[in-house]
Structure formats: C-alpha cells, structure tokens
C-alpha cells in the first residue's frame, strides 16, 4: 500500500540546507532510498555536475533570474550528492566542505578578515590571490608550475588556465603581434598536414591552432568560452532565419542550394545590422 507522502518525516525537517541534506541521505539509503541514486558513484555523477555548471552559466548569460535560482539549486544538489557519498565512505561530509571553503576564503582575503590594508587595486588583489594559491599548491606538494591544473576541465578552459599559469613565470609572448604571427604559422602547418600528412597529424596541428587561438583571446582580454558561445548563438539565430525564410517558400534547407542559403544568411546579417 502506498505511503501517504504528507506523513513522511522529511516534511518535518526545517527547510533549507538541513532538509536538502536529509533528502539526499534518504535518497542514498540502501533500503528505503531511490535505486538510481543508490547505485551512483563519483564518476557517474561528475558529468551531471559539469552539465549543471554550464546551465548556471547559460541562465546568467540570458539574464533568466528565475531559471538561475533553479539552476543554482541543481548545482548545489551536485555538491550535496558528492559530499553524501564521501560521508558514506568516511572521507568527509558536507559540513567539512563548507568549512574548507570558508577557511580558504578567510585565508585568501587577509585585507578583509585580517590586518592587511584594503587600499589596493583589483589587479593587486589578483596577484596576491595567486601568491596565496601558489603557497597552498606547494603545501600540497604541487611544485611544478602547471601542477594541479585540472585535467577534467573543458579543453578550451584548461588551455587558458595552462597559459595563464605559464605567463606568471614569464613564459609568454610580450604582445599580440607575436601571437598573431604564431596563428599564421600554425595555420600554414595545418594546411601542410591536410595536403601531405595523415589524420593524426591533422588533429595535432588543429589542436596547436586552437591552443594559440585561446592564447590570443587571453592577450586581448576576451573570454574564449564567452566569445564562442556568442558565435554559437549568432549562428543559431541566423540559421533559424534561413529556415523561416525557406519555410515561407514551402521549402527546407535540405532541398535548397548553398547559394540560396548563403543569400538568406547575408540577408539575416544585414537585418541584424539595421537593428543594432
């Protein structure tokens, strides 16, 4: 016989973090929990954690504040899920996670929580922040400059972090002109690989070109992820215009020529310029 959901003790737990933690404990209970939640591991949950972080970023970019509230909740759930699994294994619990980040914030802000002066620029604070993080890395035994740049980061973001870390010790081009010259060099090598070499070399040269493009973004002060998201959105918007224009003619992209679609693309582009 189904249990009355309103009689479940979970409804007596105060709302907020206490209830969320209780819900996760219940979901993971081997006897009374959800079979799907019980069988999950760090590895199976990790992709959802990454996905939820991107959905938070998407809601922020669209200015969708109601959605952002929900997406932040979904991201918080991922933290709670990982912490619950760690607690079951005797490693740490959610309180330990919260205490760790609180300690880290205090240690990294001596100008707020300590006796250092707040009279410093944001740029100086960034340098101080990196100095503190370098000390923390050394304490963990990460002595190499590029140690502990997470391997699981999206490739474009990891490229940016690797380059920033190397730049701090002077391994960097002094100006964008050198980066642009490197892009030309890598593009030429990609053409050579396409014409004379095999798939493995083509992939390698494409990777080199993308890596330098990320470096150019850094030198120009552009977030490459944001720039590419913007380009994706623009492509989606303009292609939708092509589909709409063709639909008015009773046609689809599949039964149209490239020349027709190019002309409609240019028309969509001109229409956007007029509304800017």
TrEMBL record:
A biological process from GO: dTTP catabolic process
Reaction it catalyzes: ATP + H2O = AMP + diphosphate + H(+)
Domain NTP pyrophosphohydrolase MazG-like: residue ranges: 40-113
Enzyme class: hydrolase
GO molecular function terms noted in the UniProt entry: ATP diphosphatase activity
Annotated family: Belongs to the nucleoside triphosphate pyrophosphohydrolase family.
Name of this protein: Nucleoside triphosphate pyrophosphohydrolase
Taxon lineage: Bacteria, Pseudomonadati, Pseudomonadota, Alphaproteobacteria, Rhodobacterales
């Amino acid at each position: 016989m189904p249990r009355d959901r309103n009689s479940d003790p979970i409804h007596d737990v105060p709302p907020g973090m206490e209830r969320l933690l209780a819900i996760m404990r219940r979901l993971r209970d081997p006897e009374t929990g959800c079979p799907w939640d019980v069988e999950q591991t760090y590895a199976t949950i990790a992709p959802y954690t990454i996905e939820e972080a991107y959905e938070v970023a998407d809601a922020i970019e669209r200015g969708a504040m109601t959605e952002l509230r929900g997406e932040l909740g979904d991201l918080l759930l991922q933290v709670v899920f990982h912490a619950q699994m760690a607690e079951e294994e005797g490693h740490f619990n959610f309180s330990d996670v919260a205490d760790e980040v609180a300690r880290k914030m205090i240690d990294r802000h001596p100008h707020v929580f300590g006796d250092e002066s707040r009279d410093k620029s944001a740029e100086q604070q960034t340098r101080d922040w990196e100095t503190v993080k370098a000390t923390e890395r050394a304490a963990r035994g990460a002595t190499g400059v590029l140690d502990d740049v997470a391997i699981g980061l999206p490739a474009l973001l990891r490229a940016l972090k690797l380059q920033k870390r190397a730049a701090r010790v002077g391994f960097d081009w002094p100006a964008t002109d050198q980066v642009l010259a490197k892009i030309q060099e890598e593009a030429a090598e990609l053409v050579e690989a396409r014409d004379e070499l095999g798939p493995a070399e083509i992939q390698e040269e494409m990777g080199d070109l993308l890596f330098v493009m990320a470096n150019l973004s850094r030198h120009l002060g552009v977030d490459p992820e944001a720039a590419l998201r913007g380009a994706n959105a623009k492509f989606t918007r303009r292609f939708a215009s092509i589909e709409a224009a063709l639909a008015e003619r009773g046609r689809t992209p599949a039964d149209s020529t490239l020349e027709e679609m190019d002309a409609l693309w240019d028309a969509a582009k001109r229409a956007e310029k007029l509304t800017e």
